[in-house]
Amino acid sequence: MQNFFVKSHGLGNDYFVLDQTGITFQLNEKNIQLLCDVHYGIGSDGILLKVASEKADFGLKIYNPDGSEAEKSGNGLRIFAKYLYDYGHTSGKIFTIETLGGLVTAEVSGETNGKANRIKVDMGKAIFNSHKVPVMCDESECFDHPLSIIDETYLINCVSVGNPHCVIVCTKLTKAEIIKHGSEIENHPMFPNRINVQFAKVLSRNEVEILIWERGAGYTLASGSSSCAVAAVMVKKGLTDRKLTVKMPGGSLQIEIDESWNIRMEGEVKEIASGYLSDELMADVLCL
The domain 145-260 is classified under which CATH number: 3.10.310.10, 3.40.50.10740, 3.40.1110.10, 3.40.1410.10? Predict the structure, then answer.
């Protein structure tokens, strides 16, 4: 089982999973970039690495396709939970996972022929404190704060759900706009750790539509943590109820925010492929 991988997607946001005990190399920035490359590697929005944990049932490291490490990923967590259940790492349907962004609880909420197809994740608390997001803002909470880039000024709302997010409420959504400005916002000096960006449009009291620019990955069809962040901001601003559906180009997630700002997310996940990193790919990996 050396260098075995499983590739899955959550609403079009795809990751592949590796087990640290089953690979013959150490991940680094360069070989992560190669492995995630759609032409020279497997092609992926990131890598999920199963590691040991002293605090939870399982440990997880999450890597962006640019080689940086992410604190948390909602889709990544659902994909990882499916992998753990489908490949016999756990027989239980509820288990804990340690991430850089904190501990989470995952639950297999749906399955077909013994394979998980729907996962719930308790994503922890929404944190609005500017220092903890972090965002360089004079106010204790960064809400409706103007952010100017080259040819546009946006009113931003910042929150951490284990990783940092910048939510911009819009009356209309255009893919061209978030692609044009996503990188500028992600790398703005206001955000010392860079930031994930969402443009969001309220459709009703229980439905929101969003577009996503993911830190370290770019334009993304879906994101679990982004959905959680947008839901938290919408509830905080009084624009939606606490239980809502977040619609993305890749599909929808159900998000629930309780009175203490704990977040629960539920959605589909599907396996794409499994296999082994080839000797020829490994030769390239080991050169980096």
Answer: 3.10.310.10
